[in-house]
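Rotation project, supervised by the postdoc (A.L.). Task for the rotation student: set up a whole-complex structure prediction and record inputs and outputs verbatim in this book. Inputs entered:
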Amino acid sequence: MSNKKASKVTPYEVSGKIDYDKLVKDFGVRKIDDVALNEIKKYTGDLHFMLRRGIFFAYRDLKWLLDKYSKKEKFFLYTGCGPSGPIHLGHLQTWIFTKWLQDKFDVELWFQFTDDEKFLFKDKSMEEISKWTYENMLDVIALGFDPKKTHFLIDTKHAGLMYPEAIKFAKKITFSTIKAAFGFKDSNNIGSIFYTSMQAVPAVIPSVLAKKNIPCLIPLAIDQDPHFRVARDVYPKLGYYKPAILHGVFLPPLEGVEGKMGSTGQQTAIYTTDTPKEVERKIKKYAFSGGQATIEEHREKGGNPDIDVSFLYLKYLFEEDDAKLAQLEADYKSGKLLTGELKQYLIDKINKFLAKHQKAREKAKKMIDKFVYSKGKKGKGKRK
Amino acid sequence: MSNKKASKVTPYEVSGKIDYDKLVKDFGVRKIDDVALNEIKKYTGDLHFMLRRGIFFAYRDLKWLLDKYSKKEKFFLYTGCGPSGPIHLGHLQTWIFTKWLQDKFDVELWFQFTDDEKFLFKDKSMEEISKWTYENMLDVIALGFDPKKTHFLIDTKHAGLMYPEAIKFAKKITFSTIKAAFGFKDSNNIGSIFYTSMQAVPAVIPSVLAKKNIPCLIPLAIDQDPHFRVARDVYPKLGYYKPAILHGVFLPPLEGVEGKMGSTGQQTAIYTTDTPKEVERKIKKYAFSGGQATIEEHREKGGNPDIDVSFLYLKYLFEEDDAKLAQLEADYKSGKLLTGELKQYLIDKINKFLAKHQKAREKAKKMIDKFVYSKGKKGKGKRK
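Outputs recorded:
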């Protein structure tokens, strides 16, 4: 053990400087290499910038999944959202990538809103959580998912469907396992202990409904992997495929490269409902800079894009153009581009994105019924 | 600690010689005294023989409940069944008493089938448990409950209604509490740890549906009390009344007065589907006798009804007539009545009961829909 502050990555705490190579080893996942990228490209034609840039950097069972796909066995996508507050940029990263996967592979998406989880882990009432479920659904819809191919599962609303499956997972998972995976104690509430079974379930719901095995691909931020690591042994025991997973890195918080946006202890995430002024203020005031103390020094020594949060937000989310990104990086390193200029570039990018998103978010209010799963909605395009 | 074999009473193990006075103290319940009996009698006119004979012997919050009732605030009854095998006489005891309560107080009964519990605690598949749920429902219906006032809740089937309420209980119960109440370990599966929340829920479901507080009375065998002891603090925190409880003793197994019928380790319970021959064989072969080794000795010394299982079955379940029971007791004690004669008397009683029950059980097959709760069925008599 070294002296440096230990990092922690569980679904319930992300802190410290994240060593992704160590996570790959500790979690027992595979790093995405050129071979894996080429495998994906065979089906997608091009590669999403999050793949090209290593934002989605690791996987489980991906080759198995693509092999199934090549044999006309279509998979479905499963990802989710824990509704306990407003959506920030950190949430969007996985969902933007998920939408690309849906479009490229032309597959269904099952999107879970873990309102039970948030109720059980946060000091919030169910009423408050339900309000956030509604608000968060608007953000997901606003990203442009195809309602014909997208089904929202809300844990409490769909408990009739999910709980009977969850107990099958729960029966095969001990509290010892949960303790080891999530760091829980005897003082944890018994709902939080059970919860991971509910998160395991959407990966089999389409198979349960279709009464046949359908492969599943889960894009997620890597802190969510322990849920599936715990459940992985169980899927085959219940007669299902193990889900394939694509793991994303964390969008850093504004204040610097440790932890993740929105994790405990930092209050300055950028939310999808922020005004242009708020975005400007937050970036200017809080975005950690890789630049030098003075303009003169910056011109002379240049900045460090690897720790500059504005640059990282462009790399992770807002500058799709590789050539433009490379130019920004070079200019920043050389000192030609000042931190203030880089920040302004990012502010404009974010505000352009949010203007469009906020419009779509308003329109989404009328579309919720098209997304929330109901028996009658089963299958493509059918509505209750 | 004495040397004698320790008794154990939890929902998951009943063993040893039960000291009910000690349970009253350990569980913190009140013993039913003459004052309590007179309180009940004010509303019921007479007292069920199980009350007169101390078969239902303890309570929680009964006086509070009757006070509410006297002010026209009707309660509802809640009891249940863990469907993992055939129904035996031990199960019937609580339900027969519950039916009397329903009739006397003219109240609704919510009857829970804890199929999730049995799945999580037993080495049985959900298919097998579901088969027993169906079979067990027939036995409950056969006892003559009023379908207009009786609602079956099946945990997996009604999870959509129950799980969102269960997590509210679960949030306020730690694993430490569960360990202490049920003797669980870290090796318990996480579904079993969560389960007690599901058993807490039916005591509030009518209040949830009516959107107002309705008092609840739970008749149960005392081994089920720990579920509610754990949840009692939680009910008021969620804005509900604590349920009142009436506690029954255990019908002893055929082999003797330790443990309870149907608990682990004894295989000779009398089932509702037994033929007259089977009943006769089981009683004659296994029913523990309080009599003497030879007829001569019995005539001389007399038998001991307190440990004679046949006598106890008559007292607990099959001889409603107090005078007749007293006669049997006196004759057995004096040696006038032989064990074989007592057994034959019981066999006839049981077989008469079962003949009627088995007919009613056949008819019940067409009545299940009238009992299983559905939204449309809400309120008296309405059917979907």
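Student's summary: Strands of chain B lie at 8-10, 13-15, 30-31, 56-60, 76-81, 109-113, 150-154, 216-221, 244-248.
Supervisor addendum: Chain B touches chain A at residues 116, 119-120, 126, 156-164, 166-168, 170-176, 178-179, 185-194, 196-197 (CB under 8 Å).
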